[in-house]
Amino acid sequence: MATGILYLCATPIGNLDDMTFRAVKILREVDLIAAEDTRRTRKLLTHFEIHTPLIRYDEFSKAHGEKILSLLREGKSVACVSDAGLPAISDPGAELVKLAVEEKISICPIPGANAALSALICSALDTTKFTFVGFLPKTSKNRREVLTELSTHKETLIFYESPHRLKKILNEMLEVFGNRRAVLARELTKIHEEFLRGELAELAKISEPIGEFVIVVEGKIFSDELQTPNENFLDVYKNFVVQGMEKKVAIREVAKKFNMSRRDVYNAVVLMND
Ligand code: SAM
């Protein structure tokens, strides 16, 4: 007998209009919806006139996981939804996916809203490489360990955080990372959506934050990268010479430091002295 399909179905992170047509269709068609919080999901289903049976599935209802798997084995289809956004992203679902894959059950994503990526694309920070961290550990000691490990990452960092810990976490980031550019993406897709942009020192002064937040932090910028050859290599050369370095040696050292040819550095030095 063919097994059923486990759909991982995105739901809105605030604005109900972000529900996709496909999500509504799949949620209507499946045999069962496995939801993180059935009361919350029922409201969403009522809004979209979906009448599919619901079962709770979260970290406290592992037994329901077995029931879901047995239905899938029988060829029934199940959609897994979280309270908001993508299931399995800082939400239940990942464990169910692992168990289903072990049983060779097909998994099908129904993409849609996600807080981390929505914040990242509006951040104006580097979107080419990023690390999604999600929620930091609960204890300050464990948090600092994670932040210390992340402090040398060059890529943009994305965190989820609750409003009551936000200020504390921003101050810890400031201590461990130093002052860096960051963006607080607040209440995404909702009426009070806003982006607070600045440096950690400034953002950490936030008073009584309200709502849901994603923190996007610039990756570490190594000091060498701050210097572009055209801007700074002649200054570095001048400094070396002032410090008593032989001109020939200074040219060699600058070429090495800025990954330039010695001839290019030499020519620029000659032009500068003209
Ligand atoms: N699965 C969800 C997703 O795909 O984005 C994330 C769920 S996680 C339990 C909840 C956290 O996501 C919140 O504490 C907050 O950091 C972030 N979040 C969710 N909705 C948000 C929104 N509308 N605006 C800003 N942050 C949001």
Which keywords apply here?
274 residues, alpha/beta, Cobalt-precorrin-4 Transmethylase, domain 1, Methyltransferase, Cobalt-precorrin-4 Transmethylase, Domain 2, 3 domains, five-stranded parallel sheet, binds S-adenosylmethionine
On the 0 to 100 scale, the average pLDDT is 92
- Give the percentage of residues in beta strands: 15-25%
Number of domains: 3
Q: Roughly what percent helix?
A: 40-55%
Cα(first) to Cα(last) distance is: 85 Å
Give Rg in angstroms: 26 Å
CATH second-level architecture of the largest domain: 3-Layer(aba) Sandwich
The shape is elongated
According to CATH, the homologous superfamily of the largest domain is Tetrapyrrole methylase, N-terminal domain
CATH class of the largest domain: Alpha Beta
* Class by SSE composition: alpha/beta
